């Protein structure tokens, strides 16, 4: 491994401002890296102007299994620049860390995957089967890119998938899902001195709040790894002024699902609840979902999970935990593919993502490269 080249690759990715909807520049940079290798099949899948997914496919010397690698191109906004001691898009480095927006979440993991593939091509390493790297748009705001690639069949042949999200170098095999929903209420405006002449949209949302609380409260089964089902109303807005009955109001809720309470049955229950409320006089509610993400089921004893754990322990020289993640990843979309396959979430990042002075430890980044390389070569023997 050329440590200097590996770090330069990460720094160059961090310098590209791919905040939320400007991923094409990162995709273009990655394409240039693979242009010199005819063995790498690079497919650009456009999502929207300025937003492109990449699928990079490399075939081995003989037929075999197909291993997917996943990393997203987008990062969140740096927020208040004055809060940063290291500029968010400079890729600054000291003796221990590389800093920048996305260093942990998740250009560190993406850069490590890219370096492994470039090294594999340069050294003409032998393996059986196929490696397919997915570099996706829109993970931070709804997994748009992974959903698009899955719909188009790019994940249908996978036998296993590595998602390089930050895991503190722990092996994660399961994670929560997410349901973000919006309920809008339409009423009728009136003077507050004559409320009977109107229909208070906020009152409609109160009825919904009471009803969904009653629906969710009995759901008490606890996943042994991920914990309980979580539901929170997180935003509410409505009304125009203090002496007017509001004609419109909106409520937003967030549900963190588990394999014990998967998305589709819960969404069907919420839809039925809204339909029932709309049968009552005075209610005009509309339900909208914002890019729900399914929970990731998994088996900690799956051979692919245990292979990852074995390689990580050998490389790091200590025990490696096999755990779940409270967040969601692009795996929520990729598992909708034609066949089932095990997923491991493993990356060199930490808890600094989405914060000022986000960073990745250099030793963790280098270790991740070694671990990815060994897992790939052992899985595709």
From TrEMBL:
Gene3D superfamilies xrefs: 3.30.70.360, Zn peptidases
GO function terms (MF aspect): metal ion binding; succinyl-diaminopimelate desuccinylase activity
Pfam families, A to Z: M20_dimer, Peptidase_M20
Record bears the keyword Metal-binding: yes
E.C. designation(s): 3.5.1.18
Broad enzyme group: hydrolase
Keyword Cell inner membrane set for record: no
Similarity comment: Belongs to the peptidase M20A family.
Name of the protein: Probable succinyl-diaminopimelate desuccinylase
Source species: Loigolactobacillus coryniformis subsp. torquens DSM 20004 = KCTC 3535
């Amino acid at each position: 491994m050329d440590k200097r080249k590996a770090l330069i690759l990460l720094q160059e990715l961090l310098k590209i401002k791919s905040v939320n909807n400007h991923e094409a520049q990162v995709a273009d940079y990655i394409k240039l890296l693979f242009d010199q290798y005819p063995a790498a099949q690079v497919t650009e899948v456009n999502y929207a102007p300025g937003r492109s997914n990449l699928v990079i496919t490399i075939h081995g010397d003989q037929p075999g299994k197909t291993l997917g690698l996943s990393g997203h191109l987008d990062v969140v906004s740096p927020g208040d620049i004055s809060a940063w001691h290291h500029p968010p898009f400079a890729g600054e480095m000291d003796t221990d860390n590389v800093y920048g927006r996305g260093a942990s979440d998740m250009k560190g993991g993406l850069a490590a995957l890219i370096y492994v593939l470039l090294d594999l091509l340069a050294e003409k390493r032998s393996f059986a089967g196929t490696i397919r790297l997915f570099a996706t748009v829109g993970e931070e705001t709804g997994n748009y890119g992974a959903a698009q690639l899955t719909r188009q069949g790019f994940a249908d042949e996978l036998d296993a998938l590595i998602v390089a999200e930050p895991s503190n170098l722990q092996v994660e095999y399961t994670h929560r899902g997410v349901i973000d929903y919006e309920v809008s209420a339409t009423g009728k405006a009136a003077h507050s001195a004559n409320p009977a002449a109107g229909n208070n949209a906020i009152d409609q949302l109160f009825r919904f709040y009471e009803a969904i609380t009653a629906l969710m409260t009995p759901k008490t089964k606890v996943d042994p790894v991920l914990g309980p089902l979580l539901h929170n109303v997180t935003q509410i807005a409505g009304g125009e002024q203090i002496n007017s009955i509001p004609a419109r109001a909106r409520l937003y809720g967030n549900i963190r699902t588990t394999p014990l309470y998967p998305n589709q049955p819960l969404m069907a229950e919420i839809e039925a609840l809204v339909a029932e409320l709309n049968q009552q006089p005075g209610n005009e509610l509309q339900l909208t979902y914002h890019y729900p993400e399914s929970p990731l089921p998994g088996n900690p004893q799956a051979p692919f999970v245990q292979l990852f754990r074995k390689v990580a322990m050998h490389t790091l020289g200590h025990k490696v935990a096999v755990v779940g993640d409270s967040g969601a990843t692009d795996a929520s979309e990729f598992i909708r593919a034609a066949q089932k396959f095990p997923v491991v979430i493993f990356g060199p990042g930490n808890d600094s993502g989405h914060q000022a002075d986000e960073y990745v430890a250099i030793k963790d980044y280098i270790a991740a490269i070694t671990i990815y390389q060994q897992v790939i070569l052992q899985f595709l023997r």
